[in-house]
Amino acid sequence: MRFPPSLLDEIRTRLPVSQVVARKVALKRAGREMKGLSPFKQERTPSFFVNDHKGSWFDFSSGQNGDIFKFVMLTEGLSFPEAVERLAEEAGLPVPKAGPREVEQEDERARLHALLEASGRFFEAQLAGTGAAEARRYLDRRGLTADTVARFRLGYAPNARSALKEHLARAGFSAADMVASGMLVAGEDIPVSYDRFRHRIIFPIADLKGRVIAFGGRALDADAPAKYLNSPETPLFHKGAILYNAYGARGAAHDQGRMIVVEGYMDVIALAQAGFANAVAPLGTALTEDQVRLLWRMVPEPTLCFDGDAAGRRAAFRAVETVLPHLKPGFSVQFAFLPDGLDPDDLIRQHGAAAFQEILESKTSPLFDVLIQREEQENDSAVTPEQRASLEARLQALVARIGDQGVRSQYQRELRETMYTKSRKAMQEIVGSKGRRDARFVGKRRDNTAPDWRIEAREIERSRLGAPPRAGPIAASRSRGNGLAERTLPLPAREALLIQTLLNHPWLLEAHCETVAELTLTAPPLARLRDALLELIAQNIALDRGELRSQLTKLGLDKVVAMAEGAITHRSDKFAEPEAEAPDVEVGWRHAVALHEAQVGLKRALAAAEREWQAAPTEETWDRIAEIQQRLARGIEVEGTGEE
Q: Of 217, 224, 237, 519, which residue has the fewest beta carbons closer than 10 angstroms?
């Protein structure tokens, strides 16, 4: 609707800027101007200035400026026509009507407003009557106080086909207006019109001026075809363009800088009763574009609150698609997911308002994060480069829908960085960390970064001993593995312990492959078993205990495995057991290897001392031999004597 410039000028003349602003900002005189704290930003030093002479205001903290109409629009979430009507009424000026058709439409709207207000009062009165005992019990069970019921003007629609119809007729309203307002159900195939709402708890729905424009009804009959029923579309009510409790919540939303969007009437009412007056809800539909724009008129970044179950996640993901194209600098949404199975009403009744406040303060997610979650959850496999490329392509297509070039550019930049980081992380999980590979990749992806441990082990062995490596082709050992095991002497307990630890915790083979290759094993069966393990790792066999033993059986080494396990007659080394925790395994393994290598070093030192004694017997050499023998007997861990 267009307004005559003379009307706007007259409103500005009658209402000084300081008078309008002072309702929201505490102003102090500063020379020719007045100043106060910004209503749009949190600050300690005043940066908001008002100049009545110029009829304008300027906020240095946010860069906003304008006249009284813009101030009311920003602080109260009104459209321009609504701001003009509000200020004109305050200034005592009539707003001129438009042409005959618009006059007729305004007359109809006025009649419908009056009819709906009368309907609301009727429902409120019915809730207090004798026929509404069941409705009152329901509200009591939901924990609503009398003050809350009155604040939201809750009511009751009697279980009768024409109770409201007869009441409105007695009040002078026509049947045509009753149908146009949505309060009656009528049609060519319906001989007698009847009340739309029957035997239901009634929730009045108001516009941004607080006028009743529709109703929602919650069925009390368990067999009702619809648990919740809203008014149909009417000249006053378009359910995709309004939010339940928008009128009641916008003041608190502006003061707190936050608007909470929940899923239903009862969630809004429960939150308000718990102290969260800044809550609204869509009217039985998914969030619409018009509702997003309405929210942004009240706060720049509303919080969309969803149940934590699968249905709640799906609703959140639909909201992402709705909001994404309309993002603009400084305007977006946040998401808050409640514990699985709880809605806001349940959460507050079970855990108190503090639990909900904690979610708002510390457990919200920005839209970008939920966008990533949505695509990952719907297509959770990103194991191969092709799958990661598919994920990135889907995300890029969604980001391309953002209309604002600046916001779209920022999303594209963060998406590139996110996908690059995800690719690096995927490679790390494929390769594994500290000897453990992610379970998603075992058996699906080969570690293409792993060297051939047979070659590396041979090079280490050659450089250390100056002799060919012990590890040979596994195929050559298959026919004689068990025979050798059967003919060998009892296996050294510590060497058997080391091999058993590798069998029960194969991830050690990747984490300590060089150490395993360099182990001095005096028992040929254990040395052959160790070489087979290195060969299997080189072939990229999955690090799974059962699969590893199966492969060893195929190679004819099952009896050697049994001998290694049978050589351990005590259970004090818990780290070697299959159920041991990884940190305990790591510490125990390192300790056992250190003890073993210390023993090997002592034996070499003893052999050298004995050779020296045979060449030139001395008391000093004899004492050294005795000391080494005592150490070997006690099994004391030493770093080595430095002798070969």
A: 224
